[in-house]
Amino acid sequence: MDRLYVAIGLVLLLGGCVRAFESRRASDGRSPADAPRSDAPRSDAPRSDGPLFEVLRAADAPRLFDQRRDGPAVLDAGLVKPDKPQPSPCAAGMTVKTILADTVVCTASFASDQCSAGKLCNAGAGWSLCPASVYRARVKATPPSDAWIAGRLPRSGFALQVPVDGVCPACVQAALTDATVMWTCTAGAPEESTDLSSIGLSSDLVCHRVGVNDPATEGYWRPTGAHLGLLRSVCCK
């Protein structure tokens, strides 16, 4: 008898569950086929194209090197290195006046004879006292005044010769026979004579013929005793 009562109770319990399920299905208007599947994507699940996945994809992308982050060994793409400063054409402590890109005037606070005038140029950077032939070929306008150049007037006996490159062998004051050393460029009129044995050349604002009265010796220069002290030198590269 007890087993009968247990069986009847189970039947009644199962019948109540079936009626409750049918009632709930009727209330939402869905058939069992319309019930959500356990394997369907949830509406609240993260989207593969959402902001979170965008961040994750960006983190997985190849990392670009950045000098500020990765150190000085790697440079940013497109980073332009600053130009290295160019050395001065003049020695330390000198002021520079540019005549041409490869010709300058270096000015010191002390006077130099022609033999030491090259010390005003920055030899380590490739600059030197400008040879007379180079100076004459380059300087056609706005010449400097009273600046040493590497040129001299040699003598043959007592007669002066055309100018040549280089400083005087000795920058001393010694007297020889007086001779005309400079003429005007326009008319070839005599302008100056000297008895000095060591005659160098310095720049001048006016055109002169020097050594020999010939148009081939014309230039913006003048004869100058090699022992005299000048503050400026013409330096070339």
Describe the structure.
This protein is α+β, with helices and mostly antiparallel strands and 237 residues long. It has a domain at 95-236: Mannose-Binding Protein A, Chain A (Roll), CATH 3.10.100. 20% of the residues lie in helices and 31% in strands. The protein has 4 helices and 12 strands. Strands 1, 2, 3, 4, 7, 8, 9, 10, 11 and 12 form a 10-stranded mixed beta sheet that branches. A two-stranded antiparallel ribbon has the order 5-6. It is globular, with a radius of gyration of 49 Å.
Core attributes:
237 residues, alpha+beta, Mannose-Binding Protein A, Chain A, 10-stranded mixed sheet, 12 strands, globular
Summary?
The protein is an alpha+beta fold and 237 residues long. It has helices at residues 2-28, 51-60, 67-70, 132-138; strands spanning 95-100, 103-112, 128-129, 147-152, 155-156, 159-160, 164-165, 175-184, 190-196, 199-210, 218-225, 230-236.
